[in-house]
């Protein structure tokens, strides 16, 4: 099932059935996308580079200068002086329930580009009854601050997407991060828990601003 899903994803023909993966139309579409997405060469100040190792070095050096640069904040909020009422946030510390995890998984897209693990959303939806206990146990290990093996599931594939048709330089591409499904679901779980509190905070700020 995983391999069929991977092949289907490669063609971006999400409306076809799994059994159609060997049709001539499917193969033409998949191969066309592969040729289109392949970076033949990159233009640099020292001329074009064609070898895979040279392109890898150019891309790494470029994004290393732009990503992960820390800056010092010139100002910050002094929350006590703003006079906002404190709210009960104990619900954020409650263990994750199976129902909460299920709602999160079933709200996510079924067919999105897979990360390093190769899984897409359809796997977790179709196999929920089999894997729900293991998933709940794994997420609650993180809730208990036991993250010893999280590094194995916290890596990502960085993929370059061209920003224009005639992309030649590294700056003509934008990077996207394809993370492990486990990390993606966990991030979504945390976001869903925070959303009501953030919405309430935004509403309070807007009300005070209007006054």
Describe this structure in words.
The protein is mainly alpha-helical and 211 residues long. The strands form two sheets. It has a two-stranded antiparallel sheet. A two-stranded antiparallel sheet has the order 3-4. Helix content is 49%, strand content 9%. Strand 1 (42-44) and strand 2 (47-49) form a beta hairpin. The radius of gyration is 22 Å and the shape is globular. The longest helix is centred in the C-terminal third of the chain and has 30 residues, at 181-210. The protein has helices at 2-11, 24-37, 52-66, 79-82, 98-106, 121-126, 128-143, 181-210, and strands at residues 42-44, 47-49, 156-162, 173-179. The N and C termini lie far apart (57 Å). The protein has a domain at 39-66 and 92-210. Helix 1 (2-11) packs across helix 2 and helix 5 packs across helix 8 (181-210).
């Amino acid at each position: 099932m995983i391999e069929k899903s991977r092949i289907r994803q490669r063609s971006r023909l999400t409306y076809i059935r799994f059994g159609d993966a060997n049709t001539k139309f499917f193969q033409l579409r998949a191969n066309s996308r592969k040729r289109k997405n392949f970076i033949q060469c990159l233009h640099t100040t020292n001329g074009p580079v064609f070898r895979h190792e040279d392109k890898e070095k150019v891309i790494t050096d470029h994004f290393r200068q732009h990503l992960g640069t820390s800056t010092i904040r010139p100002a910050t909020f002094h929350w006590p002086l703003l006079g906002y009422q404190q709210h009960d946030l104990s619900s954020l510390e409650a263990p994750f329930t199976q129902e909460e995890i299920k709602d999160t998984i079933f709200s996510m897209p079924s067919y999105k580009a897979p990360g390093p693990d190769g899984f897409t959303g359809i796997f977790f939806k179709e196999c929920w009854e089999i894997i729900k206990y293991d998933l709940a146990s794994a997420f609650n290990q993180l809730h208990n601050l036991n993250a010893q093996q999280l590094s194995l599931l916290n890596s990502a594939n960085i993929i370059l997407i061209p920003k224009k048709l005639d992309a030649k330089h590294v700056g003509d591409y934008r990077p996207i991060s394809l993370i492990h499904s486990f990390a993606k679901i966990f991030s979504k779980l945390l976001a869903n828990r925070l959303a009501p509190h953030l919405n309430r905070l935004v509403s309070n700020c807007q009300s005070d601003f209007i006054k």
